[in-house]
Amino acid sequence: MKVPFHQFHSKNFSFHTDPVLVIEDFWTETEMETFRAAMTRSTWTSLFDMPAVAEAFPNTGNWQKAEISPPEARLFLDKLALACIADYMESFPDITQRHVNFNYYSYGVGDCLPTHDDTDDAYTSNRYPPPPLRRLALVTYVHPEWHTDWGGELIIYHAQNDQRGKRALEIACCIAPRPGSVVIFAVPRFHRVCRVDALAGEHKRLSIAGWFMTEHSG
């Protein structure tokens, strides 16, 4: 589903029936400016300084990640207190704890992310106890502008088996990183971030991304 924020009725939407939601014009210009200002004050970590992640996602440039400070985190989560998110998260049995994990991301020319399904298995499979289960993935874009030929699209795939029983991926959605939009989708779901083109120059693909997660008994 793709819908402008002013036309979106959260109580009428379900991720069980429509696993991908795109809301346009979710953030106001003032809210995006608040996030961008906070980003300039943040301490950024490059992919090369995250060895486990870099090993899991080689040849993806050197994108950067930073933590969200408490005031901006409150702004972010307060506006995302949508009924459709709460309903989906509470639909799983035997929940013992609920978690969120969101960070700032900056992608420049040459940066991308290869196809993965957000299960986190590539670099957490040996952790004990296992990490919380990612239930909903979210990415939202706060850069001031983005042109079509700058790349950086989010590609979401539909997975199915071919005639030989092998998994085959077909493009279900190609979502441009439009400023102010938010994309939420159920996990696991194969997706990737297209490489930012050299035509972007010094412009950065600025986003907030992460997950709504659960832990369970047993």
The average pLDDT value, as a whole number, equals 94
CATH superfamily: q2cbj1_9rhob like domain
Order of helices and strands: EEHEHEHHEEHEEEEEE
Radius of gyration: 17 Å
Largest sheet geometry: 8 strands, mixed
| Class computed from helices, strands and strand pairing | alpha+beta
Helicity, as a percent range: 10-25%
Task: Give structural notes.
The protein has 218 residues and is of the alpha+beta class. The chain has a single domain (2-216), classed as Jelly Rolls (Sandwich), CATH 2.60.120. Helix content is 18%, strand content 36%. It is built from 5 helices and 12 strands. It has helices spanning 29-41, 51-56, 70-79, 83-89, 121-124; strands at 2-4, 20-24, 44-46, 64-67, 95-107, 113-116, 133-141, 154-161, 167-175, 182-186, 191-193, 205-216. Strand 8 and strand 9 form a beta hairpin.
